[in-house]
Amino acid sequence: MTEKTYWAGKRAIVTAGAAGIGLSIAEALHKEGVKVWICDVAADKLAEAKAKLPGIGAVVCDVADPAAVDSFVAEAVAGMGGLDFLINNAGIAGPAAPVEEISTEDWLRTMAINVNGQFFVARAAVPHLKKNGEGVIVCMASVAGKYAFPLRSPYASSKAAVISFARGLSVELGPHKIRVNAIAPGVVSGDRIQRVFTDRAKTRGITYEEMEALALKAVSLKTMVDPEEIAELVKFLCAPTGRAITGQVLSICGGLEYTE
Ligand code: NAD
Questions:
Q1: Distance from Cα 39 to the centre of ligand 1, integer Å
Q2: Spatial distance between the Cα atoms of 71 and 24, rounded to a whole number of angstroms
Q3: Considering the entire predicted model, what is its pTM?
Q4: How many CB atoms lie within 10 A of CB 100?
Q5: Do the Cβ atoms of 123 and 51 come closer than 8 Å?
Q6: What distances in angstroms separate CA 177 from CA 3, 86, 127, 203, 246, one per listed residue?
Q7: How many distinct helices (H) and strands (E) make up the chain?
Q8: Are 151 and 197 in contact (CB under 8 A)?
Q9: Which of 80, 97, 150, 185 has the lowest CB atom count within 10 Å?
């Protein structure tokens, strides 16, 4: 089977697919001829993504809203005629603050999107993957879920939950030939990291440049990861190259051994 033959006719859902890492994943799959449906909370970014990637489905949906998720997944599966890949990508950075200063609202919102959202989307999508007879789920975690991550306790806790969710699902869904893995990116280039560094620098009373240097200090290769590199890893997992990989956490982080 050639590469192109494998991808032709495959169908993917990518959450938070209108920008950042999700858009890069949608773009990489679309380029192979995969049918792709994305959701996002930002209607303007969805319209831009739809213009950039002709033929994709783009729906406004907050992954923290179970009714909206059920309706998005149903619409996507009907529109594509089934489902092969679920890329459970949506997640927010949450607050950067000492634990005693984190509001209940910020904690709950981070969990609602990063943890509940993973569950709502997987719950809606799994019956369709089972019906397909095989499938792949990729849960977007973070190295923050693997190591101590000071001043970002909501985010780090939520990403540890994502890792645990993926591991559990991999065992549950293995008999259905559905592979489930988590990807743990490190410091990823793009708009989001600028927002995160600005917040974290403010919390620490240091400059943006000092925060960037501090974050890269722990990275062996002293480099950020590009969203396109994460998209290639997603493709590797979805393709036959990933046939024997399930229940794993694949870090893509330039060698990040701890976080500052
Ligand atoms: P981003 O902040 O660039 O946002 C991408 C998209 O998510 C945006 O279009 C936004 O509108 C959408 N979005 C936000 N809340 C949503 C919701 N409730 N429902 C649906 N869509 C929503 O994000 P990113 O940097 O591309 O991150 C994608 C994933 O990768 C997240 O799970 C994130 O935690 C993880 N991650 C990112 C980094 C990084 O440095 N950027 C590092 C590790 C892990």
A1: 12
A2: 24
A3: 0.96
A4: 5
A5: no
A6: 20, 14, 13, 45, 10
A7: 10, 7
A8: no
A9: 150
CA of 90 to the centre of ligand 1 (A): 5
Q: Give the H or E element holding residue 122.
A: helix 117-132
Could you report how far apart the first and last alpha carbons of the chain are, in Å? 46
Indicate which atom in ligand 1 lies nearest the CA of residue 90: 32
Report ipTM (2 d.p.): 0.99
φ and ψ at residue 248, rounded to 5 degrees: -105, 160
- Reduce the DSSP state of residue 218 to 3 states and report it: coil
pLDDT digit string (tens) for 220-244? Answer: 999 999 999 999 999 999 999 999 9
The b-or-e profile of 4-20 (16+ CB within 10 A means b, else e) is eebbeebbbbbbbbbbb
Pocket of ligand 1 (CB under 6 A): 15-16, 18-22, 39-42, 45, 62-64, 89-92, 113, 140, 142, 185, 187-188, 190-193
Largest CA distance in the chain: 56
